[in-house]
Amino acid sequence: MHPMLNIGVRAARNAGNIIAKAYENFDKVEVQSKGLNDYVTSVDKAAEQAIIDTIQKSYPEHGIIAEESGIIEGQENDCQWVIDPLDGTTNFIKGIPHFAVSVALRVKGKTEHGVIYDPLRNELFTASRGNGAQLNGYRLRVSNSRDLTDTVIGTGFPFKQKHLTETYLAMFGAIFAECGDLRRAGSAALDLAYVAAGRQDGFFELGLKPWDIAAGELIAREAGALVSDVAGGYNYMKTGNIVVTNAKMMKIMLGLLREHLTDSMK
Ligand code: IPD
Ligand code: CA
Ligand code: CA
Questions:
Q1: Contact partners, residue 70, CB within 8 Å, separation at least 6
Q2: CB burial class (10 A; 0-12, 13-18, 19+) of residue 62?
Q3: How far is the CA of 208 from the centre of ligand 1 (A)?
Q4: Domain locations in the chain?
Q5: What distance in angstroms lies between residue 158's CA and the mean position of ligand 3's atoms?
Q6: Which of 65, 96, 116, 117 shows the greatest Cβ crowding within 10 Å of its Cβ?
Q7: How far does the centroid of ligand 2 lie from the alpha carbon of residue 104, in Å?
Q8: How far is Cα 68 from Cα 50, in angstroms, rounded to an integer?
Q9: What angle do CA 165, 169, 172 make, to 5 degrees?
Q10: Contacts (Cβ under 8 Å, ≥6 apart) of 224
């Protein structure tokens, strides 16, 4: 394993241990509102600090962007760690056992390493660019579905951005009419990891943030997926509008989703 990926894994596991312990002892967790349907807990913050401490111990000069702390400049900002300490906070707060830690390293804007860790299932998804993707050390491969028949497609609802409801529901309807079934499990990072693992045949969501996507898009691509924005371009890190599936299905999914994009989203 590349030394930088190794540090990412150590950081994600440290955070995962904090989250798993707190999940068993939820009475002690403090919850605060950040915005519409957007919450942060004392656990998100503690997990994020553990990740930052682990990274800075080995790479004090690297930059960091983390969901709760924002941008932390380093002396060598060409290397930037992108951190979501707890992806699936709503599930965590409600006691639904489906959430993960997401850590990625970008070098000159290109994601080189990605880690997604599900602490309750002890599932560690990892990838380094050009080296494939693994789950607990075993090679991952995307599903080989040729069309949407019998597929399970993951998605996320725009619950923090309700102005997207109409556009989103049109897209949902177009995909639902053709696919086997849809899932809204509540962690975009795990949605991407599950596409990599072939557990979901595809995934789409609107308005995600870079820390939701960074590790997962590398893991999915290294498992053979294509990643696109809804317009069919590569601006998903900026727009947060993302479609992930195998090469055959990408054409089909984009064909169904694209026509519902509004001008302001292109
Ligand atoms: C959220 C989850 C969710 C997605 C939201 C994200 P958070 O992240 O990934 O599945 O639908 O858009 O914001 O807030 O739990 O880290
Ligand atoms: Ca997130
Ligand atoms: Ca989060």
A1: none
A2: buried
A3: 7
A4: 3-139, 152-265
A5: 15
A6: 116
A7: 13
A8: 13
A9: 140
A10: 141, 142, 246
- The confidence score (pLDDT) of residue 145 equals 97
Which of 55, 70, 64, 68 is closest to 11 using CA atoms?
55
CA distance 199 to 220: 12
The structure's pTM equals: 0.97
Mean pLDDT by 10 residues, the chain (266 residues): 97 98 93 90 97 98 97 94 98 97 98 98 98 98 97 96 95 98 98 98 98 98 98 95 98 97 79
Which residues have CB under 6 Å of ligand 1? 84, 87-90, 156, 186-188, 205, 208, 212
pLDDT at residue 262, rounded to an integer? 86
Select from 82, 165, 212 the residue to mutate for testing ligand 1; criterion: most ligand atoms less than 8 Å from CB: 212
Q: Percentage of the chain surpassing pLDDT 70? A: 100
CATH of domain 3-139: 3.30.540.10
User: CA 122 to CA 19: how far, in whole Å?
Assistant: 12
The reported pLDDT for the residue numbered 210 is 98
Class of 152-265 in CATH = alpha beta
